Amino acid sequence: MKLLIYFVEPAKYSLRILEEAFTKTDSVEFYFRKNTSEAALNKSGNVHLPTARFRKSLRAHFLSDVIISNGFMDRFFLTHFFLSLLCFKKVPICIDSDGFYNAAHESQSAIKRTLVKFIFSREFVFGFAAGYKKHREYFTKRGMMADRVYTLPIQSLDYSHACSKDESIFTIAYVGRLIARKRTEDVIEAFKNNFNDGRKCRLLIIGDGPEKQNLLQKSRGSENIRFTGKVDHEEVKKIYSRINVLVLASHAEPWGLVVNEAMSAAIPVIASDEVGAAFDLIENRNTGMIYPVGNVKALGLCMLEYYTNNELYRKHSDNAQTLLQTDWSIDTYRERFLGAIESIRRQMSS
């Protein structure tokens, strides 16, 4: 069986699932839509970074048994879609997406909604959802039958080696780009409102971006807020060993892989209810807390709860790492991926 896979970019987690899951099939041909992320060769030297080309796509279509595309509505996906639609050979196309359904955010034009429903309702189009709940609805609410949607627990880098913590000071952290939709200013405000009274606690803002100067201004008056700037992968490993709680306050976050990373390092996560990962990794899991996006008071209370309740913190810390090592492990992903491919082959042959 031959797979044809389109990734968005050669990020480290993409190469991880490529090597540890996708290559477990007979043959894999893969391309990246852009070639700008840092990535490394695998140990055997077989992983290179080919970028997608239109002519290659046409040739590869008829040689493939299954096509997997990270996202859709670009020229490569649409090429394969219409070839399968119009040709006798219906090559199954799997849309791999971390998007989750939110009716309040459905702002597509009527023409685009109609096109998406037309694509999703075709019998040769399948969905690979990042999570089991709202991420499956991303497909089913747009016209795809439930039996054509498969959940593949989205993977990140593993930081389980960074679970030893610095006990001298309680550390809350934000990790990611400093951009407006991340609402990092809410994290700073909540921290200043609750920890400017001499409590032994600090806030680390890890990352860089266009909002940095604005956030530096907002952090004035607190000696316990520190900005690290951009850090590389090796430095992130060290930083996770110093973090007690991670906060992700975004008002638009399809998933948020930093949640997986933190939980793999036994770090409970406080996330807004607009963070996709919260529905599967935090809600009813005792691994973190969820608060209404933009509610700074509620966010501050979550921070205080972990700071003052060591028993709760320890429980959520242990549960977070256990979840990432079991239900959300690369082994689980591989098993579900291979099962999905076999199921798709059966559906297409029936």
Structural notes for this entry:
This protein has 350 residues and is α/β, with parallel strands linked by helices. The chain has 13 helices and twelve strands. Strands 2-1-3-4-5-6 form a six-stranded parallel beta sheet, with helices on both faces. A six-stranded parallel beta sheet has the order 9-8-7-10-11-12, sandwiched between helices. Helix 2 runs parallel beside helix 3 and helix 6 packs across helix 11. The longest helix has 20 residues. The protein starts with a strand and ends with a helix.
In short:
The protein is an alpha/beta fold and 350 residues long. It is built from 13 helices and twelve strands.
Strand line-up of the largest beta sheet? 2-1-3-4-5-6
Note the overall shape.
elongated
- Poorly predicted runs are 38-48
Mean pLDDT: 90
Radius of gyration: 21 Å
Ends distance: 17 Å
Number of helical segments?
13
Q: DSSP strand (E) fraction?
A: 15-25%
* Relative helix content: 25-40%
Output the helix-strand order: EHEHEHEHEHEEHEHEHEHEHEHHH
Main sheet characteristics: 6 strands, parallel
Number of strands: 12
The helix/strand class is alpha/beta
Features:
single chain; 350 residues; alpha/beta; 6-stranded parallel sheet; 13 helices; elongated
Map the helices and strands.
Elements: E1 2-7, H1 12-20, E2 27-32, H2 54-61, E3 66-70, H3 75-86, E4 93-97, H4 110-120, E5 125-129, H5 134-140, E6 149-151, E7 170-175, H6 184-195, E8 201-206, H7 212-218, E9 225-229, H8 233-240, E10 245-248, H9 257-264, E11 269-272, H10 278-281, E12 288-291, H11 296-308, H12 310-325, H13 330-349
Parallel strand pairs: 1-2, 1-3, 3-4, 4-5, 5-6, 7-8, 7-10, 8-9, 10-11, 11-12
Helix pairs in contact: 2-3, 6-11
